[in-house]
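I had to read the description of the data format several times before I understood it. The format is easy to grasp once an entry is in front of the reader. For illustration, here is how one protein appears when written out as sequence plus structure tokens:
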Amino acid sequence: MGSSSLWDKIYSSRRSKDSSHFDWFCSYKDLEDLLLPLIHEMVPLMKQAEKPLHVLDLGCGTSDIGLGLFRESHLPLWISCIDRSKPAILAMRERVIQDAVTPKHPDSHLEYIEGDVTDLQGVRSGSISLVLDKGTSDSLLRSGTEQAQRLVHEALRVLQMGGKLVQLTDEDPDARLHFLERAGAGPSVTFHDIAQKDGIMYYAYIVTQKKHLKGER
């Protein structure tokens, strides 16, 4: 599941049929009651920066989470959705144009960027309010822990103080909390049950950034 060429084939196949989104678990509607209140908790960060909250969706694929936040958030958001699959990024850019997607808040912005989620070049340290990881770490973990740990470290690097990393996964707390601790998240992790589908429970693990990391860019 972590193969770049495999995901390119999947997204290219879907793009040849239509430009609709694909979520292999948990769509925006499944997560709306979690994400919108979380964003509203960050109003002090927005006032401090005097600009929209910056949301980073790592490994977005053709998920509708970025679109959903863009359409439904009453607060101004700058949403950057990043994936290494060019077909996925092109499909979502096309969908935004074809569906004439408009934001709830006039100052919100939505962009889709081709890039490596384990090496966020060009993203300044301490510049992001909310990082989303829906299943991306799960995919990387199939090839070992190194790349998944790099993703977490990069997410924590770009988060501003008080910002949050949200991981969405079906991995149980015993395993995921241990992984996050080893990846550098420390003790500031909470988790919630968010949905059960086909007998599988999905969780949200929320890491609050409480320290500055070395390696600023």
In short: The chain is about 40% helix and 25% strand. Residues 166 and 206 are 5 Å apart (CA to CA).
